[in-house]
Structure formats: structure tokens, C-alpha cells
Amino acid sequence: MIASVKPAAVIVLAAGEGKRMKSRTPKMLHQLGGRSLLAHAVGAGRSLEPEHLVVVVGHAREQVAAHLEAVDPGAQPVVQAEQRGTGHAVRTALQALPPLRGTVVVTNGDVPLLRPGTLRALLATHEEQGAAATVLTAQVADPTGYGRIVRGPDGAVRGIVEHRDATPAQQAIAEINSGMFAFDAARLADALGRLDSDNSQGEEYLTDVLAILAADGHRVGAFVAEDETEILGVNDRVQLAQLGRVLNDRILTEWMRAGVTVVDPATTWVEATVRLEPDVTLHPQTQLRGATSVASGAEVGPDTTLTDVTVGPDAAVVRTHGERAVIGAGANVGPYAYLRPGTNLGESGKIGTFVETKNAEIGPGAKVPHLTYVGDATIGEGTNIGAGTIFANYDGVHKHHTDVGRHSFVGSDSVLVAPRQIGDGAYVAAGSTVVKDVGPGELAVARGQQRNIGGWVARKRAGTRTAEAAEAAQRARSGEPATPSGREATGETGAPHANGTRDTGDVDDAPKRSEQ
Ligand code: UD1
Ligand code: CA
């Protein structure tokens, strides 16, 4: 069913304090699946393309109105200075609008899971039946707290009675008021003028409009939602969590139907704004938030939270926390990686274990595999950053950039003090603190030279197991039979290298033998 006409107005009620939330944050601003309750409600209202979209604000009105401006700048906030009930709220909204003709839709700001299609069906039913009012209802397992739909023997809606005002017999009714209505504009305005506040809360109830119109002999209809979860409201944090779960299940179900593998839907959380492609796999304990997108063949998780992250096809992201980052096709991230904003990992690149990156352009095939901080840096294609390298980007006052060229090699435990340029095809020796730029093809070595002091253990640690081990090794090397004491010390400085040279600063990756 498609509504033939667009409503004259949608009025979203959002002035209440939400006392039961027990929160500093206004209820409307609490988040569900990455959007505020208000954004959910306004989004559903906007989908009807009304002439006017009004949001009644009251409690924390500046904060709520500012949020509304961000969410839907075309929506009009109307202030209900005192919260004198839902009927009074709608009256206040109508007073802020020019006289309306046609249909007015009223929704509750705290009912976030309503599907636009259901709202359209409510509108269509209302218009087809030429009703003065039509209420969206549902049969629910536990109607506690909701207004009950009171029908006559013929099944026609007689009115709505609030839980607190209901008789025991009425409390047994399982059909509840969702708080969503379609009204004929003129009939609504007339009935609102006749509301009283003769009820347990001393408020003007919008729900009383239905009894007034029915008593006048007007047609009052109901549209029963098939899915009761659509009309559940958030009044406290228990319901917030329950509805969060419902929304998440809905989102995951849609993605699974669209070809995404969700290994454990119970521990996987995907916000409505996320985009996934077929053949994405989400492992347990994965949260995808905001504008995150994951391309086909990529695997995310376990234990991964990505916010506004773009994951390329066939990439793998394991036990990672990422925000505003881009991960290229076939790239590998984690386990235990922290991708901060501005991280951009190229195709087939790697950000490995215990690596933190920020404002980091890491080229295709480049690798930062272990225990590294990369801040404010560009790393060229195919370059390898050794374990424990730190890009020292902060001098205590300013942040500076470091540029490492293509196919270069930074040895383990290096500190690159920014601003720094390391050329294409350059080497940095392990353990270097690099404070001067390194040209293409150069090797930078910046560390203390090694001295091996022969016989030190025998002199200073005689009688220890270490000394025994050293003696045994020396005997074995010299082919001498075992003697109680090892060879005497050979002096303070290291003997010449086996090849006859002293340490020339030559660096290669083959482990050097300790030579005596
Ligand atoms: C309301 C309905 C109840 C329905 C339920 C559905 C009434 C009297 N009761 O109850 O029948 O089953 O919603 O969730 O309508 N608000 C204002 N101004 C006010 C009072 C409320 O804008 O003066 C707003 C609130 O911010 C909220 C909405 O109206 O978004 C509903 O108010 P709330 O107090 O939550 O009503 P419920 O007790 O849930
Ligand atoms: Ca409510």
C-alpha cells in the first residue's frame, strides 16, 4: 500500500524529560544503533515527505533543537515550554503552523524502530477509510505501561485508556497504542480544544482525542502492525538495550540475506549506516560503526571495532580498533592494531601486531609488522619497517612529518626523529636514532659501537653457572680437554674479527658471531 497523498504535517513529540532514563543526556539524544532516538523518529517522519515536519521540544530544548538542526535542517522545532501532556504538545505544534488541510501524522520521538513502510500503510489505511483518526496498534506479549486500545462489540475503536488509568479488565487488553496516529487536520484541532486533564497524571492526553471523535460519531480506525517490535518505546535503559538488540538483529538479518557471513550474530554489532558487500565475513565480537564499509571477500574480526573505516576487498582485519582509516585491497591488519584517523594502508600492505598508526600513508605492499608507532608519516611502496620502530613525530610543541621512500628498509628498534626524509631504496641500521636525512641508496647507522670485553665473565663472575658455561664453550672451541679453570682472560678490548677487520659499521642481517 502506498499513500496517495503526502501528509500536511508530521508532528514528532519530543518534549518530555525521559525521567526513567535517569540520565544527564536528554532521552531523545540517547543512541540506538549509531543514531539518536530523535534521528530515528525524524527519519521515519521525513520518509512520508510531509509539507511540514515539526518536532515538539521542551526539556533540554536548546540541546535537542541543535541536534535536530544537524540531523534534519528542514525540520521545525516548536517549543512546548511546559510538558502538559501529549495532547497539549500536539496543540502547541498546530499553533505554530498555518491552518492545515488534509492529514496530520503524529509520532512519538521515543519509538525508534518504526519502519517507513508501516507508517505509509497507516497513512494509506487512514485515507482509504476516510477516518477522522487512525491509530497504529499492535498485539504485544507484555502491554505493561502502554495505553490500551478499547474496542466496542463491533470491533470499532472506542478510545484509548492509559495503563495507570485502566481498570483490571482493560489492563488485560493486549492491543496497545504505539503513539503513532493519522488524523484529519480539522477534526484533530477541534478535538484538541476539548481535552481535559482529568486523569492520574493531570495531563492533556492525545489519546483522549480518539474517544472524543468516536463519541462525535466520526470514524476512528486502527492499523495493526504485524511486527510488534516496530512500536516498542524507549522509556528506560532496559528498553534501550532491548531495542538496540532488536535493531541489530534486523540489520544483521538483512546483511546475511544479502550474502554476508556473520559467524556470531549475538556478538556482532553493525550500525544502520554501515555498507557491506556480499562475501564479507564478520567474526565474533565485531562492531562496525558510522560510515564504515567493507568490500567483498574481506574478513573482519574477531574482536574488532571499526568506526568510519573503509576496508578493501579481500583484506583481513583481526583484533583491531580503527577509526577514520582506509585499508587497501588484500591488506592485513592486526592482531592488536590501533588505526587512528588518517591511516591509509595501501593494497597488500600490512599493519601488524601492537602497531599504532595516525596520519599515516602506508604504500602498497609496505609492511609495519610489529611493535611500532607510525605518526604523521608517509611510507613508500614495498618498504619494510622493522620491529619496534618509533616515528617520533612530536617535539613537545609541534607535530612533524616523516617521509620514508620506496623499497627502503628501516631496521628494528629505530627512532626516526621528525621532520625526516629517508630516501627511496635506503637502509637504516637497527637500533639507530635518526636525526639526519638519509639519501636514496644510503645506509644510516646511528648508534654506539659495540665493544666485546674478553674474559670479563671469568674475572667478574667467577664460580657462577655463566662462568662455567663460558669455560665449557671456550674449551670446546679450542678442542682442549676439560680443566678446572678456563682460559685466562685475553684483555680488555675485543680481539680482531675473524676476517681481520675491526667493526667498520657494516650492517647486515646475518647474526654476527660474538668473537673472542
Ligand atoms: C504514550 C501514550 C501511550 C502509548 C505510548 C507508546 C499518551 C498519553 N500515552 O505513553 O498510550 O502506549 O506513548 O509509547 O499519549 N511528550 C511531549 N510533551 C508532553 C508529554 C510527552 O512532547 O507534554 C512526548 C515525550 O517526549 C514522548 C512522547 O510524547 O516522546 C510520549 O510521552 P511519554 O511520556 O513517553 O508517554 P508514554 O507514557 O510512553
Ligand atoms: Ca514513551
TrEMBL record:
Reaction(s) this enzyme catalyzes, per UniProt: N-acetyl-alpha-D-glucosamine 1-phosphate + UTP + H(+) = UDP-N-acetyl-alpha-D-glucosamine + diphosphate; alpha-D-glucosamine 1-phosphate + acetyl-CoA = N-acetyl-alpha-D-glucosamine 1-phosphate + CoA + H(+)
All residue ranges annotated as the MobA-like NTP transferase domain in the record: 10-141
Gene Ontology molecular function: any one: magnesium ion binding
Pfam name, any one: NTP_transf_3
Annotated segments matching region Disordered: 457-516
Region (Linker): 238-258
Binding site for UDP-N-acetyl-alpha-D-glucosamine: 13-16, 27, 80, 85-86, 147, 162, 177, 235, 340, 358, 373, 384
Swiss-Prot/TrEMBL cofactor(s): Mg(2+)
Subcellular locations according to the entry: Cytoplasm
Ranges of biased composition (kind: Low complexity): 464-476
Entry keyword annotation includes S-adenosyl-L-methionine: no
Complex formation: Homotrimer.
Enzyme Commission numbers on file: 2.7.7.23, 2.3.1.157
Protein name: Bifunctional protein GlmU
Record keywords, A-Z: Acyltransferase, Cell shape, Cell wall biogenesis/degradation, Cytoplasm, Magnesium, Metal-binding, Multifunctional enzyme, Nucleotidyltransferase, Peptidoglycan synthesis, Repeat, Transferase
Residues annotated to bind Mg(2+): 110, 235
